[in-house]
# Entry
Amino acid sequence: MADQLPITFQEFVKLPDLGIDPSNISFNTLTLQSDKFICIREKTGEREQVCIVDLDDTSKTFRRPITADSAIMNPENKIIALKAGRNLQVFNLEMKAKVKSCMMTEDVQFWRWISPFDIAMVTEKTVYHWSIEGTDSPTKQFERHANLNGTQIIGYTTNAKKNWMALIGISAPQGRIVGSMQLYNKDRGASQPIEAHAAEFSEIWLEGASQPTQVFAFASRGATSSKLHVVEIDHVDGNPPFQKRSVEMMFPPEAVNDFPVSMQAGPKYELVYMVTKFGFIHLYDLESGTCVFSNRISGDTIFVATKHQNGLLAVNRKGQVLSVCVNEETVVPYILQNTGNVELAFRMASRANLPGADQLYVQRFQQLMNQSQFNEAAKMAANSPRGMLRTEDTINQLKHLQSAPGQLSPILQYFAAILEKGELNRHESIELARPVLASNRKALLEKWLKEDKLECSEELGDIVQQHDATLALSVYLRANVPAKVVVCFAQSGQFDKIVLYCKKVGYTPDWVPLLMQVARADGEKACDFALSLVKEDPPLVTADQVVGVFTSQNLVQQTTRFLLEALKDNKESDAQLQTKLLEMNLLNAPQVADAILGNNMFTHFDRPYIAQLAEKAGLYQRALELYDNLDDIKRVAVHTEVVNGEWLVSYFGNLSVSDSLAVLRQMLDHNMAQNLQIVVQV
# Structure
């Protein structure tokens, strides 16, 4: 029936299988600061060394010849802290370098890493924190309370802000293991002595809360009763108050001398795992104090434990490294079947997105809708496990309901509940975007996008595009819609980004229709875009294709600008385009054509054809420069009134004597009075 249990339990590794002598597996020689490393001080005869087990890959277990009274591994990195007498040193094992050291004035009775950068140290009278960064010496946190006198310190923990601290020791008066704890609040500088064997700080989300509630859980096995307590610390204004929980802990008759040795919180499930010396595991719901599960996981003494994947990792005296985590498939059905606590099953399924309560959720949702408790139904659907009620059907039911005066409508309650703790799915994002943009609250949409609260899609981008092209581009980029991204880049003139983007995502657009789309919107931007495309190696479009697009939109100026740049190398293969460039300008902008011809930029165009067009356009000098046929020259040369005389005289120097006489005769026959002087000059 192991597959029906609410936990998954496994043996991670057996330390003796890694060559570790069982005599070195004890509270005094083995330390477990996190689920990354186990550190064991080994002694064989006169030889002392430290063995470090890498729990991510036990084949990478290594040893170093180190002599120390205590060794603790950093919770994340290959950094080790060593204690020899009052001398404390921290080394980076990968860099083989000392990180920091200090000499204490008192003996350190207990120490542990409380973060990747901080070590807590407990002396006979004082608790210190020591940062391995910078040059500061250990900083005193508080004086030990008298209730810890004569105890063996076995634990120390802090909350995330490090303004609450709990120090735990045990003693054995009359043969009973008594737990003593000092709870210290840094803000008030006050301590509270409590009888407890294990403690843990965590947080839970209460119904209607805008922020998580910080809680402190501690467990004690007293002479007459054993209890788990959960209390709130650092109450947040506006949050609902948390009622203190005190629940009886059950120990089997055969475990008379058993007691809690460690508590580890699993924030995802809002559970606390308590492991006892005799190898029992207890799972409690932090909000209600309900015992979810209790069973034995080890027949040997467990002496150390730490957090592991929202669960717990523990080591027993045999050297078994054991892990306990919630079984997400079975925990909710187990609660329903074994505790009958429907509310707890609901909360567990909702808070951690777990299966097992789906049918109950559907029934309760419909019940709330039938009772016209629409806002409660909306919140319930929003928080349903795995989003099972977050469907188009639910949205359609809610969005047509009216709200009470002064209250959010049910559909907005629904969206607000989701946004408070998570992200909207595709359909929800679209449904919310429409009214938000319609009410001109675009800034809200921008905020949610930056916070990754919306699931971007092409449809959402299309809706946003009607209001803000830049914001739409952001949506298309997140939704990975390359065709729309490229269009947005082009329309905003960010042509340098288009090709880079396409290469990055492996997208090949149909460039010609895209260029046409831009040309219809903005000719100048289209020209810049076209130039960027033909300059790629190899070109992404041909100059012919660009001219075809531009001329279809009658973009004469843009075609001219494009061709002047694209044809500047004056290649013979571009003869047809040179002709096209001159043709369109002779027909539409003769002065531009005159300037182009005057600069002698091109030499491969159809000279007779362009000469004819130049003649028709009244550009007689350009026509004469291009004509080779004598009849054509005779016909054009007579227009001396619009041709520069000095140029014309020099022009005849390029003709043969016989051709010159023939042209001069034609000029006199056409208009002797007008042309006699220039003929004489020639």
Summary: The radius of gyration is 42 Å. The first strand starts at residue 7 and ends at 14.
